[in-house]
Amino acid sequence: xxxxxxxxxxxxxxxxxxxxxxxDGSEYWCPACGYNCGMFGAGENVPVTDxxxxxxxxxxxxxxxxxxxxxxDWDYEL
Length: 78
Ligand SMILES: [Zn+2]
What we know:
Elements: E1 4-7, E2 18-19, E3 28-29, E4 36-37, E5 44-47, H1 50-67
Antiparallel strand pairs: 1-5, 2-3, 3-4
Bound molecules: zinc ion.
């Protein structure tokens, strides 16, 4: 069984969606474009790659202060 990762389907760049409870009613958040969606019907599942794993880790680290409420600053790149 191959492992899958959920990515944002709004743009060509593959950005892993982050699981968060920061936004009411949507558990997935795209750190690149701000796409929010609930746990059902969210984004797109693709086979996980080392790049995507690393991207997910980097995004999570970068977004932690924002998602934890330490700061409201967040610039969407896409
Ligand atoms: Zn996105």
